[in-house]
Design goal:
The structure is a homotetramer of 218-residue chains.
Chain A lengths: L2 H10 L12 E6 L3 H4 L10 H16 L4 E6 L11 H4 L27 E4 L10 H7 L4 E7 L1 H14 L3 E5 L3 E2 L3 H14 L2 E3 L1 H13 L7
Parallel strand pairs in A: 1-2, 1-4, 2-3, 4-5, 4-6, 5-7
Helix pairs in contact in A: 3-8, 6-7
Chain lengths: 218, 218, 218, 218
């Protein structure tokens, strides 16, 4: 069965509804650390366009005072905290706490007030206090950027909807080391977990959302 | 980039290691409820062969006294507990607590001692006490069967490895409503989260593991 | 060191701040099932006044369209899902799914639209999808009632603040089987996790909060 | 009702069972960072004897090759990750990532291979990947040391039993800034969540457990 036939089956099954923007969005940049954005590193690939598109979304979001949160995967020197995942993906052993590989790509211009959540698994919500941060900020919608689409982005989007958040993935802001898994996972995300949209569409929608922002309760 | 080229890129990135069977496996049957196994239901598809293969694994596992756990997705009548997921997958509204659709497919011969974990999200570990059950049983490896490969099976396997469990997916024991996402997700699982194996291989490997079982501590 | 001297030490340490009501409160009624409110049951005690005070808060909250959620502890017949907790508290074995002991006390007049979250542990957030429900409802504040203060109420309040919610405990709406742990845990809660307030105060504060309610985004 | 009468009520309710040592214990040292062990710091108190008793348990455990894990509470400079807890406990603002206050007390002689889990909440299991680490190490029992008894130790023990682990608290190895909450929480822990034991008893019991250790599966 081809992807086109799959679309048809899914329509009959009533999949692919829209979550749409809520009232208080935040931007979550998943794993755009040097280890993933430098094509020379084992886990890296050429994500130059993804970084550029994400930088555009970040600029607009900062202007609108939306919260911006980064994640990075990083482990202790002896990898005790890498668990079973290390068996499947031995290359994560490179991502040591304190190494330049786990720093956020400088092209994203991270500001001092923007937290970096250190994670050990695929999902940005697993083994982190990201849910607590989003809840304390009254966020209801998360704009998910980063890498890889078939790995940490997908896992993060699944966990977001499970936890009651709307997840929106601007297509140009996520990337992967190979095209086939990238497309297959965008398909799954859009059918079942979050909205995959064009960056331009999202930027347009954000304008009115940002205009309607009221400060979170003190 | 084709799937074959993807394989090559992944090999260079050092993905696709093996987790292998640990000491104490359990079988987890994800969402083989009537709502998913009856092709006439909105979320259902023809999973006859998946059910048959899973029944074979269950027989062997019960003989070896391995723990067997089922999951089902089920919601309250007013769907308050379905959250944002309902927007993406309106068809889950059919899966009401108490309805025959949420009962485990009778062909699997569930025994009274085998728990059914009621879940509300994609992963069998999200919003459930499955981790606590597995830990209390000293389980270190989970043999994951069920549906759908691109939905709850994938999400469950990701959460298992994140939580420190080895996940093994016997290929014949998982199924989906469409072939393309099924294959794409088996690819991702095997590359990054758990081992996808042939049922026959697994049954052979299980023999020695079962022979070496010692009772869990009291 | 007495409790009065403790107060002084805590003040120096800067504990005991206020979380205060946020914008969207919900009422969470923890474990006021027959198993806990019937003094004749093993885990029960005389909670008549707690039930009456909780009913008052529920009436006012329903009038104001605040979400109301109940929890109950309930296990499968063979207790596979009770885990290690069963060793410490063998009496929980009474709380079987389907038994009248796990039904919500009828004096609370639970309405059909008000969900009952089935939990297996002490915290209402552990092994449940309560966080997802609260987030999907845009709740930022949880008014915690129920039993026991030194058990499930305390554990729930700790998990609420950890997850980014404001927890408020109306003193008359929580109870325990013994006075000493009841008071000791109200002290800890108020010093470190949530606000312990008088029901009358809370009812007054709720009036303006309810008046300011706007519907959650669709 | 006095604490002695409480004991009697609890006995009737069938509380206070024993979890006992399992097969693979690990030592978890909760928040014995300088911020808590230095009486001059806002959150600190005189924990010299607690540190000394913990050091004794650590020596014995290292000799027996038991896993040793530390936790520390630490926040980003702008406290975005401190959430609602900051309102109740403004003094946690002192615990900044990179500050000497969040380093483990040097008297415990932490070794390079012993991980420090950075946490943001009370429980060592909340917002961390500690469960994954324990599971990957096949640990079934956690020996909990640290501070404060009425805060992070209590919350950690509750989460451990909820997650299916046996928690054992050597009385001399935990401490608090005030005696009344310390004793009240040891009472609750022993009645409902984990075993409170004397350090000497534990050291004796550990001897045979350590002798029976077999390496975790590779």
């Amino acid at each position: 069965m081809s992807w086109a036939e799959t679309d048809e089956v899914y329509q009959i099954a009533g999949l692919g509804g829209r979550v749409a923007l809520g009232r208080r969005p935040a931007v979550l940049v998943v794993d755009l650390s040097n280890g993933f954005t430098d094509p020379a590193s084992a886990l890296g690939s050429d994500l130059g366009e993804v970084v550029a598109a994400t930088a555009t979304l970040l600029d607009r979001s900062r202007d609108g005072d939306l919260p911006v949160i980064f994640t990075t995967v990083a482990y202790e020197a002896n990898l005790t905290d890498a668990g079973i995942w290390l068996r499947k993906m031995p290359a994560i052993a490179e991502l040591k706490l304190g190494s330049p590989l786990v720093e956020i790509d400088a092209r994203l211009g991270r500001r001092p007030g923007e937290p970096v959540v250190v994670k050990k698994g695929a999902s940005a919500l697993f083994g982190t206090n990201l849910v607590a941060m989003l809840t304390a900020l009254s966020v209801d919608t998360v704009l998910v950027c980063g890498a890889t689409t078939s790995g940490c982005v997908r896992a993060t989007v699944v966990d977001l909807v499970q936890n009651g958040f709307r997840a929106i993935v601007p297509r140009e802001c996520v990337g992967d080391r190979a095209a086939a898994p990238h497309e297959a996972n965008l398909f799954d995300i859009d059918a079942k977990y979050g909205d995959v949209v064009l960056l331009d569409e999202l930027l347009t929608d954000l304008r009115s959302t940002i205009a309607a922002q009221t400060p979170a309760p003190r």
